[in-house]
Amino acid sequence: MILRLLIYPLLALAIAAVALADDTVYRWVDGKGTLHYGDNAHGAARAAPARALPADSSGIADLQMVRNGEATDVYVANRLGGPIELDLSFTAAHNVQSLPSLPLRQVIAANKRVLISRIEASAPGLPSSYAVGLLAMPGDPRAMPDDRTYSLPIDENSDWELGQLFHGGFSHTDEQNLYAVDLIVPVGTPVLAARDGVVMQVMSGFNSAGLNQAQYAERANIIRILHDDGSMAVYAHLQENGALVKVGQRVTVGEQIAFSGNTGYSSGPHLHFCLQVNRGMRLVSVPFRMVGPEGFLPLPGS
C-alpha cells in the first residue's frame, strides 16, 4: 500500500491583545517568526490599529478591542460559515475587572460579531493594564454526529487507490487525523461532496508541498463542510485556487467542490478526508463509513 503524508493546520486561533490608554499597539515579529502585539516598540515594530487586531492565517476569527468611555469592549467576529467555540481569558491583569468575568467560553454562530466582555479599571483613577488571550476552534461542542454512510469524495471511475486508512502509522496518529482516509489521485482530480452541508471554511492560496514540517505543515489547502448534525468534513491538500465553492454555500452530495492537489506537508498528490467534531476546544476525528465501487471501504472499526 502506498502511503501519503498529511498534516494540515490545527485550525485553532491564538491571539494576544494588550489594552493601552492611548490606543497605540505595536506589531513585530521575533527571531522565531512569531507575531506579537504590545504597548512598546521593539526594533522594527510598527504601530497597528488597536480597534481590530488581525485574525490568524487560517481565518477563524477576529479579536476586536473597542474603547467605550473608560472601559474597553471585547468583540469577537466569527469569520467561518459555521459555529466556533472560543476561550477568552486574561493573560495579565492589574487593577482591572471584566463583565462577564474572564475566563469564559462561548459559542458564536456563523458570520456573527458578538460582544464577549467589557473590561474596566477596578479602582478608577489608578494605573491599570491587562492582556487577553483568545483561543477559537471550529464547531459546536454540543454536536452529536449521526450514524451516516459517506459517499466517495471522487468519481469512483477515476484513477484512484487507497493510501493511509484509520490509525495509519505514518501520519494518522493524532486525534485530528486518527480516523482519516487518504485517496491517492492525480493532481486536478474533481473532488466531490461526500455529504450535504454548508461550506464552513475555504483555504486555497497555497501552491507547494514538501516534507519539511516547519515549512509546510500549515500550507495545505482545505475545504471544511458543516453537516446538519454539527459534524465537519475536511477535504485537504487541494490544488492552488482549486476550490469551486464559497463560505456559506450549501452543497449536495456528489457536487464538485474542488480539484485535488498536492499542497502542504505531503509526499505526493492525494486527497485527505476526515470527519471531525469539536470536543471542548479540541478538534477530534471520528469514525465513519464510506462506500466505494465495490462496497464499503476497508476502514478499521467503521
From TrEMBL:
User: What GO molecular function terms would the record report?
Assistant: metalloendopeptidase activity
Nucleotide-binding in keyword set? no
InterPro entries, A to Z:
Cell_wall_metabolism_enzyme, DUF4124, Dup_hybrid_motif, M23ase_b-sheet_dom
**Domain DUF4124 positions:** 13-47
State the signal peptide span.
1-21
Enumerate the spans annotated as M23ase beta-sheet core domain.
179-278
Note the Pfam families from the entry.
DUF4124, Peptidase_M23
Task: Specify the protein name.
Answer: Peptidase M23 domain-containing protein
Biological source species: Arenimonas oryziterrae DSM 21050 = YC6267
